[in-house]
Structures are given as C-alpha cells and as structure tokens.
C-alpha cells in the first residue's frame, strides 16, 4: 500500500538564516568541530555539511564561524508555523526549518497539489524574507511519503515540485544511496554494487532484513517509496497523555525546561513499559489567560546523540523534552506579536503516533538511549581531555591475523560498515583468540633441547621440538607443550616479492612452565611473540 | 491507629548491608560463585590479576547491554572480548591515557557502568581514593587489572591454571582449568574458591 501524500516544506540553511546571516556572506554554523550548515557563498567555495572546522577554513579562509543556537532557530521558525496554520491545521515539525503536513484536505481546498505547493512555498518565503534576511527562502515538495516529498522539495523548484500519485518509487530510483543519510549503510550498498535507490528497491524484501538488519529494512522501505514505519506496526495511541499544571504560572524558559524534561521522562517510561515507540507527539501549552499553543512534533529520524548509535526513529525522552523547549522558546521569547500575555499555567504532551518498538526493547539496565546518551557525553568529554584519537571503539574487521580481527576507530567517527552475517574466515585460528596482542610482535628466541634455534624447513617442518622460549633476551622459559606450525598465508601480498625468504611464515602455540600460553610466529628474521592468552 | 499492618517479620527484611537486586550486575556462572551477592556490586572496586578473567566477569553484563570501557591496556585483544560475550557495539578502548589515567578513569565512570583499568605502577594515593569515591557515587563497577593500590572491595586471583588441548606438536589451545579465589572486605571477607574453565563454556 502506497504511503499517504505529504507536503514537505524546507527552509534551506535554516541554522544560518535564523541567525540572520545573508546567503552572500561566507559563513558556517558549527556543532563541536563539524560544519552543520553553511551559506550559499561558503558552499560555492567548497564548504560542505559534515566537514571539520579546519578543512572548512582551508577551503574558504574568510569563512565566518558561528555557534549553533537551537533556541534561536526555534524562535525564528515560530512565525513560519503561525503562517502555515492558515494552510493546514496539522503541520508536523521535524525540526526548526523543516516541517511536513498531509495534503489530503488542504489540496482539495486550494485546488490541487501543485497549487498547494506553490501557495505553501510562497507563504513561507514571504514570512522568512520579512522576519529574517531577504535571502532566506523556502521550498516545497509533494509526493507519496515523507522521504520522497523531502527529496522533491530539495529539487529546488521555486514553484514546488510535485511527484504524481503512485510515482514515488520511480521518482526515487535514480537518487544515489547517499540520500538515505546512513553513511555506513550507503557505503556497504555501494560496495555491493547497489548505487541508486532503485537498485536497493529491487532487492527481495525478506533477504534485506537478514542481511542488513533493521536499518537495511528501513532503507528498503524508503527506497520503495513507503513510509518509515509500516502501517501494520502502528497501533491506536493509548491514553498516555501527561500534563503538569503550574501554579503560579511560569514566564521564564528555564524552569519550564525542567518541567518538560520531567514530563518527557514520565511519558517515555510509560511507553517503554508497554514496548512502544513514539514517532509524533502533540505538545500543548496554555497560559493563565487561556491562550493556547499546540504543535505536532515528528521525529526527524536522527540518532539520539551521535550518528554512531543505531538510527532510531522513535523520539527519545530527551528528544521530546527538546521539542517542548523549542516550542516554548518560540512562543515565549519569539517575535513580540507571537508572545502570550500571561505565564504558562499548563504543559501537556500526548503521544500521537505510536508503534510497536521492535528494535528497541527495554533493556535490563533501563532505557537504552539514556545509558547510550550518558556514555556518549562521557566519551565526548574524554576526547576533550585526551584528544579525538585517544578514545576508540573496536569494530569487527575481515583480517586473518588475530590483531586484524577487529580494528579500532575513534569514537564518533562513522564506523566502517560490517557484514552482519557470520562469514567463514579461512586461515583464522580457532577460538580462543589471545587476550593480549603485540601488534609489532615481541622479538623472541625459541631453542631446542640442545640450545640451538628452532627453524622451519621449506616443507614447514620444525628442525627439532621447541624446548625453551626467551622473550626480548630475557630468562629462558621451559616449554611444556606446543602445537604448530600453522602456515600463515595472507602476508604475501603486502610484502614485496623480492624477499622470497618470507615464504616460511608460521604460527605456533606454546605453553611454558609458568602456566602461560602464547602465540608465536616465525619469520625469516626469527621468532616473535604475537600474543598471550593471559 | 494501629501499627499492626505495618509490622513485618524480621526474616522478610533484607540482610543488613545487602544490596538490592538492581544494584548487582549479573556475572556468568560459575564465576558468580565468587561474588558475595552473586554478581558485580555497583559502586565497588574489583581487582583481578588477569585480563582474561577481567573480561570474563564483565561479559554477561556487557552482553546484556551495559557499556564497558578498558583504559590503559594498549595490548588488549578486543576480538577476545567479543568471543567471550562482550558486546563490542558498547565497548570503548582508551589504550594509553598516560599521566591522565585518573582523570580519564573518572570521566569514564561518569557515563559507563563497567570500567576496566590498568593502574600505573606508582599512582598517587589521592587519585586512587578519589576514584573509589567516584565509583561509589556513580554506581558503576571499577575493575582493576593488576593490583589495586588500596584494598579493593573484592580481589580475584587465578591461583593455578592448566591449559588443555596442546601436546608435543599436536592439537590446539582449547581452554585452561583455573582455580580462582576471591577475598575482600565486608561480606566478601570469607574467602570463596571455584574451579572453572577459561574461556567459559569451552
């Protein structure tokens, strides 16, 4: 079944527009050390989203660097949302600068999708140009499903781009897989020869889940022009509304942020308990004079803290609290004509679109994302203390050397894609793997009963049984048992062929009289200790 | 008003000092027999004399989703951690924190439940005590690989071990039979001993 028709309204470069930066001025907004958004002038010089600060400055020396101000983004977007209330009664905000709504009713009212797209884009463009900078703009796209409508908006047709009903899959097919914004997965797809969304859509569905996991299934759905959450997974939202009355009414945002966090935690706990995830919430605020402001907030699909976590489509507690803060900031501290006359007397949050949360069940140690976010915070701080490259995460790698079974990459860097299957690795030693590995190898001597060095002949036979081991010229340890040789085959390609003596590489396992087991390797240059089973 | 409904027999009360079940992280059997509360008590320091044993005691909690970090062990074989059940997607390595080891460990404890650390040879007393306090406050578990300079809450030692699987030139390493002892403070004062295979389950 095709996805519902949706209009996406996108204000490009919103983090900059909200700070009233003109598109002609080379400027970029940073999150930490990474470029989050840049102006058209900076883009012309080669600055891109995701670049490190230093690289961006190298490409564009006169680049003005700005710190992100999320509250300002929310405040500046409030007039846009107010204007859109005249176009659709149910605008869903993904984040400041990006919102969607169903075209079902509005399209009939305004005379078709094309007319609706033009009216929506014009309405917002006028508001943006008036309240921020003249170069601020807005683009609209209509298609079946949010993903296709966002890409339609990105085609930057000023009149709004309309993909005909049933045409989303065909519209999406030529796009490269990178538009999925899942770099790991896209990289894996490309290496498998799946370059476009059309290639991904053509995969048989049941194999996708087993090969690429939940994230692959999501990508497969999106590529076929379906919505991110299958309709069958949706259920009628249970009555889990949580609210807090404030007496006396509150006019400043900080205390309200605390209330928001508390409400979000309560709601999240109730959802987790039932194994549910929530992709859209209704946030309502009311003042002592009865003024009301209600907004729908939809997940923008981003991971909760960093891209390193699995892409989770449900809103986490902190994401919900953040949406409430955005809404309150937009109302209380936004443009004067928007502000309420009194303080906030009631704050309410309602889960509006709920589905069974298969991917994120309740873990033994409490709500998973909270633990992940705490860990992410600590690790980011640790990188500040020790340096980016000092905090690493192991990722499975395809090597045959024990030291290459996993590879360490800096925390927060996109992880290289991993095959989710369990490939056979010919040439690997069976488990256990040494717990201690010396990547360079510790030079060692292996001697026979007569004190002569043990060598391998051309057929891989030992000259005599090994009897003693000395590491780095240290004391001789008596070898009590040993096994080997296991020939090492993989190194021939990274050594120059000019060294034929490298032919006889082999591994041995030995246990010495002190009870320690070690993995040894012999090369043309002698023996070394590769690891220990300590 | 009667107090009778509020009264409970003394036998239904938890033992004084015993942590609630949520305050103990699970440990693979039969290693759980080494721990006075059947698992890693949150807020405690455990000293272990072998990297393999350190990984074995955190494997179950890690496999169930707890974050785990290893600091100061540049030679750690992360593949071995995965083999015994640690979840590498929530596993962090800080190979060489150097002089900053105490600050790095303290920062890890802020956000990570299982922190394994190799302390330097001559740490400052203040650092060690501050870390112990930090563990208690953050309710994580600090596992010291190598001796902990102060008295640890629990100390695990491989008293004897014998590798199985190798003979003269034949076979391969399979596992070692280990006699492990545990002793410590408070409820752990009574020494416990078990004999088991490491890696477990082999």
What does this protein look like?
The complex is a heterodimer of chains A (534) and B (202). With 534 residues, chain A is an alpha+beta fold. Chain A has 14 helices and 21 strands. The longest helix of chain A has 21 residues. Chain A is elongated, with a radius of gyration of 30 Å. In chain A, 41% of the residues are buried. Chain B is built from 4 helices and 11 strands. In chain B, helix 2 links the parallel strand 4 and strand 5. In chain B, the strands form 2 sheets. Chain B has an 8-stranded mixed beta sheet, sandwiched between helices. A two-stranded antiparallel sheet of chain B has the order 1-2. Chain B is globular and about 65 Å long. Chain B is 22% helix and 32% strand. At the A-B interface, helix 14, strand 14, strand 16, strand 18 and strand 19 of A face helix 1, helix 2, strand 5, helix 3 and strand 8 of B. Strand 18 of chain A pairs parallel with strand 9 of chain B, so a sheet runs across the interface.
Task: Quickly list its features.
heterodimer; A: 534 residues; alpha+beta; ten-stranded mixed sheet; six-stranded antiparallel barrel; 21 strands; 30% helix; elongated; B: 202 residues; alpha/beta; eight-stranded mixed sheet; two-stranded antiparallel ribbon; 4 helices; 22% helix; globular
Number of strands of chain B: 11
Largest sheet of chain A: 10 strands, mixed
Query: Low-confidence parts of chain B lasting 5 or more residues at pLDDT below 50?
Result: none
Continuous helix count of chain B: 4
Rg value of chain A: 30 Å
Q: What percent of the residues of chain A sit in helical stretches (DSSP H or I)?
A: 25-40%
Rounded radius of gyration of chain B (Å): 19 Å
Overall 3D shape of chain B? globular
Proportion of residues in extended strands of chain B: 25-35%
**Largest beta sheet of chain B: what is the strand line-up?**
5-4-6-7-3-8-10-11
Task: Estimate the mean pLDDT confidence of chain A.
Answer: 82
Instruction: Classify the secondary structure makeup of chain B into a structural class.
Output: alpha/beta
Q: Taking all residues together, what is the mean pLDDT of chain B? A: 88
Structural class of chain A: alpha+beta
| Largest interchain contact | A-B, 53 and 55 residues
Strand content of chain A: 25-35%
Sequence stretches where pLDDT stays below 50 over 5 or more residues of chain A: 302-312, 358-368, 491-501
Oligomer: heterodimer
Query: Main β-sheet of chain B: number of strands, strand sense, barrel status?
Result: 8 strands, mixed
Strand segment count of chain A? 21
Distance between the termini of chain A: 57 Å
């Amino acid at each position: 079944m095709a996805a519902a028709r949706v209009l996406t309204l996108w204000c490009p470069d919103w983090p900059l527009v909200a700070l009233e930066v003109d598109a002609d001025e080379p400027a970029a907004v940073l999150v930490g050390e990474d470029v989050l958004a840049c102006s058209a002038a900076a883009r012309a010089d080669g600055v891109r989203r995701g670049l490190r600060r230093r690289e961006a400055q190298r490409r564009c020396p006169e680049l003005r660097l700005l710190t992100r101000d999320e509250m300002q983004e929310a405040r500046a977007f409030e007039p846009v949302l107010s204007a859109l209330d005249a176009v659709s009664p149910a605008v869903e905000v993904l984040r400041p600068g990006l919102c969607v709504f169903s075209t079902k009713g509005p399209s009939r009212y305004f005379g078709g999708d094309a007319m609706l797209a033009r009216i929506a884009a014009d309405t917002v463009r006028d508001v943006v140009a008036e309240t921020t900078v003249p170069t601020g703009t807005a683009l609209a796209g209509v298609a079946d499903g949010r993903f296709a409508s966002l890409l339609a908006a990105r085609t930057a047709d000023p009149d709004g781009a309309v993909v005909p009903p049933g045409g989303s899959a065909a519209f999406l097919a030529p796009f490269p897989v990178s538009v999925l914004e899942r770099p790991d997965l896209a990289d894996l797809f490309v290496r498998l020869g799946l370059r476009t969304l059309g290639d991904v859509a053509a995969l048989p569905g049941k194999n996708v889940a087993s090969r690429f996991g939940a994230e692959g299934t999501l990508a497969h759905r999106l590529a076929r022009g379906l919505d991110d959450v299958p309709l069958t997974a949706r259920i009628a939202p249970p009555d889990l509304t949580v609210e807090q009355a404030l007496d006396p009414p509150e006019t400043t945002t900080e205390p309200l942020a605390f209330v928001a966090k508390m409400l979000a935690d309560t709601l999240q706990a109730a959802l987790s308990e039932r194994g549910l995830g929530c992709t859209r919430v209704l946030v309502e605020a009311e003042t002592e004079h009865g003024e009301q402001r209600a907004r729908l907030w939809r997940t923008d699909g981003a991971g909760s803290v960093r891209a390193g976590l699995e892409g989770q489509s449900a809103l986490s507690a902190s994401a919900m609290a953040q949406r409430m803060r955005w809404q309150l900031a937009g109302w209380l501290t936004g443009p004067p004509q928007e502000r309420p006359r009194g303080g906030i007397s009631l704050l309410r949050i309602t889960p509006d679109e709920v589905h069974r949360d298969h991917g994120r069940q309740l873990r033994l140690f409490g709500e998973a994302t909270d633990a992940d976010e705490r860990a992410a915070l600590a690790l980011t701080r640790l990188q500040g203390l020790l340096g980016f490259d000092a905090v690493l995460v192991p990722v499975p790698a395809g090597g045959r050397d024990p030291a290459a079974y996993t590879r360490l990459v800096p925390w927060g860097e996109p992880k290289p894609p991993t095959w989710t299957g369990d490939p056979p690795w010919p040439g690997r030693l069976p488990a256990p793997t040494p717990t201690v590995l010396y990547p360079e190898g510790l030079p060692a001597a292996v001697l026979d009963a007569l004190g002569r060095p043990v060598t391998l002949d051309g057929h891989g036979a030992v000259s005599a049984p090994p009897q003693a081991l000395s590491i780095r010229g240290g004391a001789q340890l008596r070898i009590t048992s040993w096994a080997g040789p296991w020939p090492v085959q993989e190194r021939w390609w990274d050594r120059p062929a000019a060294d034929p003596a490298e032919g006889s590489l082999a591994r041995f396992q030995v246990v010495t009289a002190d009870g320690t087991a070690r993995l040894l390797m012999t090369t043309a240059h002698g023996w070394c200790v590769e690891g220990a089973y300590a | 008003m009667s107090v009778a409904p509020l009264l409970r027999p003394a036998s239904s009360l938890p033992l004084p000092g015993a942590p609630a079940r949520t305050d103990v992280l699970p440990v693979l059997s039969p290693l759980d027999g080494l721990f006075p509360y059947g698992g890693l008590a949150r807020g405690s320091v455990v000293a272990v004399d072998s990297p393999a044993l350190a990984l074995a005691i955190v494997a179950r909690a890690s496999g169930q989703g707890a974050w785990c970090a290893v600091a100061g062990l540049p030679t750690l074989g992360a593949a071995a951690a995965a083999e015994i059940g640690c979840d590498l997607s929530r596993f962090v390595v800080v190979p060489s924190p150097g002089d900053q080891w105490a600050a790095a460990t303290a920062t890890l404890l802020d956000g990570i439940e299982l922190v394994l650390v190799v302390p330097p040879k001559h740490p400052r007393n203040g650092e060690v005590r501050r870390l112990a306090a930090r563990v208690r406050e953050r309710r994580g578990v600090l596992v010291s690989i190598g001796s902990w300079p102060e008295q640890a809450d629990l100390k695990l030692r491989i008293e004897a071990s014998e590798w199985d699987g190798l003979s003269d030139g034949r076979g391969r390493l399979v596992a070692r039979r280990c006699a492990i002892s545990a002793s410590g403070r408070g409820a752990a004062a009574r020494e416990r001993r078990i004999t088991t295979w490491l890696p477990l389950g082999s």
